[in-house]
Amino acid sequence: MADARTDSQPAPSLTSNRSTLPQTPEFRAYISSNWAQHPDLPPSPRVAAEYAAARRLRLSALYPGTRLIVPAGPARVRSNDTDYAYRAHSAFAHLTGWGSDAVPDSVLVLEPTADGHDATLYFLGAAGRDTQEFYANAAIGEFWTGPRPSLAHVAADLGLATRELAGLETVLDASDDTTLIVRDADPGLTDQLDGRRLLAAEDSDAVDETRDVTLARDLSELRFVKDDWELAEMTAAIEATKRGFDQIIADLAEAIETDRGERVVEGAFNRRARIEGNAVGYDTIAASGPHACYLHWTRNDGPVVPGDLLLVDAGVELDSLYTADITRTLPVSGTFTPVQRKVYEAVLEATDAARAIVKPGIRFRDIHAEAMRVIAEKTAEWGLLPASAEESLDGDGQWHRRYMIHGTSHHLGLDVHDCAKARRELYAEGILEPGMVFTIEPGLYFQPDDLTVPEELRGIGIRIEDNVVVTATGCDLLSGDIPRTADDVEAWMQALR
Ligand code: GLY
Ligand code: MN
Ligand code: MN
Predict the structure, then answer these.
(1) At 138, is the secondary structure helix, strand, or coil?
(2) Residue 282 Cβ < 6 Å to ligand 1
(3) What's the chain's average pLDDT?
(4) Is any ligand 1 atom within 6 A of the Cβ of residue 265?
(5) Which domains does the chain have, with CATH numbers?
(6) pLDDT at 448 exceeding the cut of 60
(7) Residue ranges of the alpha helices (H) in 251-315?
(8) Ligand 3 center–CA 405 separation, angstroms
(9) Residue 310 beta carbon below 6 angstroms from any ligand 1 atom
(10) Distance of CA 149 from the midpoint of ligand 2 (Å)
(11) How far apart are the C-alpha atoms of 243 and 202, rounded to whole Å?
(12) Could you read off the pLDDT of 450-493 as tens digits, one per residue?
């Protein structure tokens, strides 16, 4: 038996057990000296800045006299001292125009004034070259993570007043239960504010979160209609996504030769996303053969087999953090079999029918209903339903939904499922307006063990997902340059393989 542990020394904190950092005054003086000036300030704010300012004005009008706190959020630990890739909260990006270059832990504060709000961005400005942080702090030091912008630089770049993050303490101290915060962006900061609110509300032992929830709702609803700059970003994200799909086709031979070929597909797309944008807007779904029937298949560890279909659902998120959300279903061999083509063309008919009704004034949920009409008619025509298409659509059975369990559309923007906290009456029941951007993504999925379908259909999963913007009279198909008819998909593959 091992001796009982008697050593009472605590475990070392992070890297203190392996630090080699020289601590002498001579070294500190030497490493802090002889550095060139930092670069000049940007001559004018980035284009996004004026759009973000207009969004802040709309928010300000909804909350007169109320202090609003919108954090970017902290870096999140993956394990030990390794973090996930940083991404600012979407509400923060929307209201500041700061995207992939946002500094973690930043906080936007809208301070009420007599006629609106003053916006101030609190963040951890770059430390001077005479500090230990400069060279010794592996989390934020310039020697480790690269230069961080100064307060003056960000103020010029985003057209916003900036202050050191430490100044946020004063904001919290001045806060009571009238101050609102985006709760999920930075749970630590939310806890701190809740503490101040409880102190202020003497007779209460719980924080009333109701108005914070309303703020999150309003911030979601402010994002329904995209401005011109957002539309340009969405268009660019979709163009980059097309190049990601091109890369998948170019690498398909390697995917077929590799045991976990779906990973080759994922890697081909994600590489393009990192080259052209910030990242993927959500985990890439690379689903070959029957995996296409699992709607969120992101393990992507299966083979890619000629004769099967390959469903890829992927989107490039640009540095602005706007993302595309596109699905294409490709015949691995380059040619659809007759039965694959039959199902593919049914899904295409559903998506084209749904898109044809899109115009200002219709309800969002009408788009889904129109896609379902086609899905019910096709599955009834193929003898899969225990009743007619009309009975399936109108009755309680909804049998056709067995083969497409998901919805047809969701709003798209900074989040792949944008405007997620909006009210149902403005989302599913909402009326379309010009500038709204959303997906149309019907599919048909015949599970490999579904005894209600003939064997030739089992294991076939097909989705076609497009992104559209509502115009004054109808909609524009933003993803129309990514081949979508069966013939065009085959020609695309022929050209790029
Ligand atoms: N990529 C997730 C979705 O299509 O909603
Ligand atoms: Mn989608
Ligand atoms: Mn998708």
Answers:
(1) coil
(2) yes
(3) 96
(4) no
(5) 47-221 (3.40.350.10), 228-496 (3.90.230.10)
(6) yes
(7) 252-257, 261-276
(8) 14
(9) no
(10) 35
(11) 58
(12) 999 999 999 999 999 999 999 999 999 999 999 999 999 999 99
